[in-house]
Each structure stands twice: as C-alpha cells, then as structure tokens.
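anyone seen this seq b4? input:
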Amino acid sequence: MQRAKVLDAQTGVGGGLVMHGNVGVLELDNAPLNALGHSVRVAIMRGLDQAERDPNVHAIVVTGKGRAFSAGADISEFSSAMKEPFLPECIDRLEASKKPVVAAVNGMALGGGCEVALGCHFRVGHAKASVFGLPEIKLGLIPGAGGTQRLPRVCGPQFAIQMCCSGGNIKPPVALKNGLLDAIAPEGANVVEFAVKFAQDLVAKKTPIRRSCDQTAKLGNCATNFFLFRAARQQLVKSVPKGMISPLAALDAVQAATSASDFKAGMKAERDIFMKLAQSTQAGAMQHFFKSERRALKIPGLERTAPAPVRRVGVIGGGTMGGGIAMCFLNIGVPVTLIETSADRQKYCVETIANNYKITMAKGKLTKEAFDKRMGLLTVVVNDWAALSDADMVIEAVFENMAL
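predicted toks r here
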C-alpha cells in the first residue's frame, strides 16, 4: 500500500505523530522505490498537517523507507488524469512550512524525489547510498515540480543545466560541493538519526528557515547568463540525438529561472513547457519504451525463482567477442573453459587475453597477483567438447557463419 507516515527515528513506531525528541520524521513508504503516487502525496499532506498542528514538533525530517528516498513520480499515472494533490502542491507545502524541514536522503532521490528534497529547507545525505538525478528528459519530459526553478537557485544555473539537460546522476561529494547537500552523514552512521540531530541543532541555534524559492544569489546576471545559455544551447544541438526535443526544452525551463520576473513566473514557464512535452508523441513513445524495457525483465512464472549458481562457464570461440566474454567472468572469479579449433587459435586466444590484462597492469589498474589469479582460472582447449561437461552455462561466440 502506498503511504507516508510519521515515524519515530529511533523506534520506528508508526501510527500518528510519533516524536524523536522535538523532531517528527515523515517517511515515504511505497516499496520498492517510494514512487510518489496519489496515496503517498495525500499522506504527505496529512503528515504535514499533523506536524504543523502539534506544538511539540519543532522540526520535521523527510526520508524514504528502505533503499530509496524516492525514485520520483509513479509513471503508471502518466496514462490517466492525475488526482489532487499534485506533486508541485506537496512540495510547495513542504517549502512553506514554518518549522524547519530537513531531507534525510537515504538512497536515490531521482526526478520528483530530487524535487521533494529541493523543497525541503535543508538536505543531508548518506555518504554511499545517496544519489541525485533529474532524468525526465529520458522520458521526453522535463522536471515538472519545480526542479528547473529551485535547482538554479540552490546550485546556480550552470549546475542546473548539467543535471536537467543530461539526465545523469550526482553523487554526494558533488552535491555537497555545489550546495545541493548541506551535510553528509559520516560513513556507517544512520542518515535519519544524523538528520534528526541536524534538525535539533537548527532549532537550538534558531537557524532561520531557508526556502529554495527565495534564493537568488546564485542565479547570476544577465550578461553572464547570456553567454552561458548560448554556449549550452550550441553544445546540446551538437550532442543530443537528432530530433530529441526534451534536453533543449529543459534548457529553456532553466533559463526561465534566471530571466522570469519571480519564482511564480518561472514555475508557470516550467509548467507550460512540461505540459506541452507531456502531450507530445515523442514523450509517449519514450515512456512506452521505458515501460517495455522493464516489462521484458519480468518473466511470468519466474518471479520467485532463485537463479541457478554459476560455478564454471564455457565459451565457444575465442575471438574478440569470445575473449572479451571470457574476461568478464574471469574478472569476477568465475572459471572459464574456452574451446578453439586449432593449436594456433588456442595460443592466440591465451596471448590476447594475457596482453589485454597486461595493458591494464601497465596503467596501474591491475596487480600482478590479480593477473595471475585471473589467468589461472582460464582453460583453453582444442575441439574438446567433453571439457564443457561441468559448465553451468555455455556461451557461443563464433563468427557469424551459419555453417560454422
């Protein structure tokens, strides 16, 4: 069931507003990736109502259950009319809170999840698990819940262009350097407990609430931005696939953050661009492709089937492809039996794989010990099919010749 609930950061007890000291923890709970479906959005609003009404709540921490903060919108809602409250409304409500709101980014914060984090007044992350990204362009869209408007205010337009127009992910050190994170929890620390302590310090020091929508210092000036956006547009025209419209549309939306009269006007520009893309054939096709890729990984009847162990792999053919496939398994410690057609081919195959590893050694990326271990796992035979009898998986990699 999709839900968001207020939990005690120490006991994990749910059901109503449960406190950790003077801090309430709002947990997004919609396994596996905490997609921001309708029920989650409703529960976020209700959780904020509870937190704001209770005088014992001095600060709020928002986090995700499990391995994700939130992977973003529920893509299944894209094919039908979405129900209120909409995500921009939820984020506006977070941002408008009169009590400090801290995002405890415990895992991936992608798309709408990243936008939720931007709507919080402060953000802390997990050193290894946290990752930020705005991948909407890969679905033929742009961030539609304030991402193109808040990110330039928090991190500056150049960083916003990079995130919004590439669809790539950002790790915690980069996020911290550019202002997307305020702090990173020490390795081994619980990020929610770290965020609770961070929030309590804010309250104790009476630190002013910092709303992303109000920040303008990093937006730059007209002259600098003119050259920045012109260069970015020229680069995108060269680099994006021909005919793909979403990266340039994302650039337009980020530029609106720097040129619109105020935040509200910039949000309107973002919404207009988003809606135009959402109704496009290209966005529909890209979303269909996205869903199809994931559906292809789910084989009916095998949902709960454990994969068979792979203790040895056989590879037929030791050319460029076969040798490369063999190395993939040797790299992870799986023994490989490779079949070739002659002694010359056998010698060539072993020498080629060894030389590839020696190149890696010369770059300082592979030790002599690791080289010896990997080569020790390789067996190359000549037309000895019985050598494959103990292989758990056999991969054919001969030349594209049907007779062969």
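The mean pLDDT is 91. The longest helix spans residues 343-362. kinda curious what u guys think
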